[in-house]
Design a protein that fits this description.
The complex is a heterodimer.
Chain A (H helix, E strand, L loop, with lengths): L3 E11 L5 E12 L4 E5 L6 H8 L8 E9 L2 E2 L5 H7 L4 E4 L3 H4 L6 H12 L4 H14 L5 H4 L9 H12 L6 E5 L7 H18 L2 E6 L2 H7 L2 E6 L2 E7 H6 L4 H9 L48 E4 L2 E3 L5
Parallel strand pairs in A: 3-8, 3-9, 6-7, 7-8
Antiparallel strand pairs in A: 1-2, 1-4, 4-5, 9-10, 10-12, 11-12
Helix pairs in contact in A: 4-5, 4-7, 5-7, 7-8
Chain B lengths: L7 E12 L9 E13 L4 E5 L6 H8 L7 E6 L2 E2 L5 H8 L2 E4 L13 H11 L5 H14 L16 H13 L5 E5 L7 H18 L2 E6 L2 H7 L2 E6 L2 E7 H6 L4 H9 L39 H5 L5 E2 L5 E2 L21
Parallel strand pairs in B: 3-8, 3-9, 6-7, 7-8
Antiparallel strand pairs in B: 1-2, 1-4, 4-5, 9-10, 10-12, 11-12
Helix pairs in contact in B: 3-4, 3-5, 4-5
């Protein structure tokens, strides 16, 4: 049984004219224990909303109108809030893009990590503090006993993100949801944080949903990749297959439009037009107005995600 | 490549930001944002300037345009020093030097129509009649790939990529020969970023622009630049032709930076150079080579003597005692970056 299984997830936001803007339109995903799923797409494609839905933290007035999210066999959407709160932070850890806003500026980092422990474990204050120091050491903060007494502003961005990661793994979660965990960081710091996340996953057998706009980051970290466009998954495959043989025209175009190190080209291929807004999505395939191989039939209905070769799903009638 | 006088010439540029020492304003210390930088850019060339947060690259970009006053050093534009110029002369010269900012949301006045934003430089420099200026705005919008109707709309009606086009049209309005682009594509989605990068390259070819392209993204810099400069803690540690710097980086910091870039090639695990420690404070940079506390190749000399940029044979210069810019094949360098 998969650790996380999302099926038919639909998330809508009410529009001023009384209609619904569809943020997620039938998301199907599965993630096995200890594996990493990379979720890739451009602004507004729904990748962060998918993560928030898993944690049941969708911002109002957004609401889930259909679908199921099974975590370790339990339907998260059916859980009472109290049970969901017990799960969130304990068995599902979270790391967000901006470590500065994820931390409380007026509390020491040690007390914030200790609090993450106390929330879910029956331990004394002293034990929690000791555990916090051990966690700070585990995420590679030098001199953790002293650093635990620092306030967030006394740490660099990279060190702050390490603190956030320490909080996320405090209770030994089975799943870590990381939404652009290195986007705000410099490239050398990004490499260190990604190495740390990998080491922690291997040591604790954690699964991870890694959300990123950077195909390079995902290629290096993920076992499987799902590409999202306009609230849908357009392609899903094992990481090697996806990068070696991308099948969806959007995935192909995305890869060709990225500058890649050591492969200097005079021109990048571009995708004409722009990412559609939530309220201006086309009927049929949402990508067809930017797609080089679109045909009339693409406008009829949204293409289903079909397994075109074993374990490689594509939502395109041309694939 | 021409050997004529470079369009932009920066010599020993220094910018220290004093920290106020309380009520009576005695400066106790100074942030050494830019600490002795020299380089040149030839006409029609793109120099990429790379570095991590706090290395001083944005300050350097502003110094080159004299948008901030340097503490010491000189900037020459077309052979003339910008620093000796009177206000009027500087304003006249500003027509030829423009800047494109990172944030397409914060850098456009929300209460002005696009026509006003793009045409403002023309009005300030009193170029043409009102009708001529309006025609020029239409022409510029067309040049950057926006419809003519865009002129009558406000910035909030546009997407991030379109706003960046407006920012570029504004910079181009006064027909500059030199543009500083400071993280001009960093806030954009991949597909839009590619559009803007191609636009910059097209415009450069068509208008003969000279570009100082500042970015933290080594992939984007490789794509656009003819030459590349790597900055660390207020100094340039390596500068040279793009192919040389990317294919055969010499300075240990350049190597660490390049090894950290994620590559789209799953399965190909490459060795990363992890830098120990953190970026030192620009308030008190380390003595000797500013990179030595994090450098695994550091020798005793590196702790005492600050290395200067030394020119190698193929137009590359490196500031390193251990790995000087010896571009001879088979020269002694650090082990090759594994990819």
């Amino acid at each position: 049984m998969a650790l996380l299984e999302i099926s038919g997830l639909r998330l809508v936001f009410p529009t001023p004219d009384g209609g619904d803007a569809v943020a997620l339109d039938g998301i199907d995903l599965a993630l096995d224990r200890g594996r990493t799923l990379g979720l890739v797409g451009e602004s507004g494609c729904g990748k962060s909303m998918t993560a928030l839905a898993v944690m049941r933290l969708v911002p109002p007035p957004g609401r889930i109108t259909a679908g199921r999210i099974l975590f370790d066999g339990r339907d998260l959407l059916a859980l009472p809030e109290r049970e969901m709160r017990a799960l969130r932070g304990a068995r599902i850890g979270m790391v967000f893009q901006e470590p500065t806003t994820a931390l409380n500026p007026v509390l020491t980092v040690g007390s914030q990590v200790a609090e993450a422990v106390v929330l879910h474990r029956p331990v004394s204050k002293r034990e929690a503090w000791e555990r916090a120091t051990a966690l700070l050491a585990e995420v590679g903060i030098p001199d953790p006993a002293r650093r635990a007494r620092d306030y967030p502003h006394q740490l660099s961005g990279g060190m702050r993100q390490r603190v956030v990661i320490a909080m996320a793994i405090a209770c030994g979660p089975q799943l870590l949801v990381a939404d652009e965990p290195t986007t705000a960081l410099d490239v050398t710091i990004q490499a260190e944080i990604l190495d740390l996340l990998r080491a922690l996953r291997e040591r604790h057998g954690m699964a991870m949903v890694l959300i990123s706009h950077d195909l390079g980051v995902v290629a290096e970290q993920a076992d499987e990749v799902a590409i999202m466009y306009a609230g849908r998954i357009v392609e899903r495959a094992a990481v090697v297959a996806l990068f070696a043989r991308p099948r969806h025209p959007y995935t192909q175009a995305l890869l060709r439009s990225m500058p890649m190190l050591g492969r200097h080209r005079e021109r990048l291929e571009t995708i004409p037009g722009q990412v559609p807004s939530l309220t201006a999505r086309l009927p049929g395939c949402a990508f067809r107005d930017r797609c080089a191989v679109a045909e009339e039939a693409c406008g009829l209905r949204p293409p289903a995600l079909v397994e075109v070769t074993p374990a490689h799903w594509v939502a395109c009638i041309r694939a | 490549m021409s050997t004529a006088v470079p369009l932009v010439e920066v010599r020993d540029l220094v910018k220290h930001f004093p920290l106020g020492g309380g009520l009576f304003g005695r400066a106790a210390a100074a942030v050494r944002a830019v600490d002795g930088v020299s380089f040149t850019i030839r006409a029609g060339e793109t120099l990429g300037l790379v570095g991590e947060s706090g290395c001083g690259k944005s300050t350097l970009g502003r110094l080159v345009l004299r948008l901030v006053e340097p503490t010491a050093g000189d900037v020459r534009f077309g052979g003339r020093s910008l620093l000796g110029l009177a206000a009027g002369e500087l304003r006249a010269l500003r027509r030829r030097m423009q800047i494109v900012f990172q944030d397409p949301y914060g850098s456009l006045n929300p209460r002005m129509r696009v026509a006003g934003i793009v045409g403002e430089g023309l009005a300030i420099h009193r170029l043409g009649t009102r009708a001529q200026r309006a025609a020029r705005v239409r022409e510029l919008l067309h040049l950057v790939g926006l419809p003519a109707e865009a002129a009558e709309r406000y910035p909030h009606e546009f997407s991030g990529g379109q706003r960046q086009r407006i920012g570029i049209a504004r910079a181009l309005a006064v027909e500059p020969s030199f543009i500083v682009a400071d993280e001009a594509v960093s806030a954009l989605d991949v597909s839009i970023q590619a559009q803007i990068l191609n636009l910059l390259r097209d415009l450069q070819g068509r208008l003969g622009l000279t570009l100082l392209f500042i970015s933290h993204d080594l992939r984007v810099v490789e794509h656009l630049s003819d030459r590349v400069a790597i900055m660390y803690l207020g100094r340039i540690v390596e500068i040279g032709p793009r192919e040389r710097v990317y294919a055969d980086p010499r300075h240990p910091y350049t190597r660490a930076l390049l090894s950290a870039v994620p590559v789209v090639d799953p399965g190909a695990r490459h060795e990363r150079t992890i830098l120990p420690g953190e970026l030192p404070s620009p308030l008190a940079p380390p003595p000797g080579c500013p990179f030595h506390p994090r450098c695994r190749y550091a020798e005793p000399a590196c702790r005492q003597v600050q290395p200067v940029l030394q020119q190698g044979r193929s137009g590359r210069a490196v500031a390193c005692h251990v790995f000087p810019a010896d571009d001879a094949p088979g020269g002694t360098g650090p082990p090759a970056v594994q990819r």
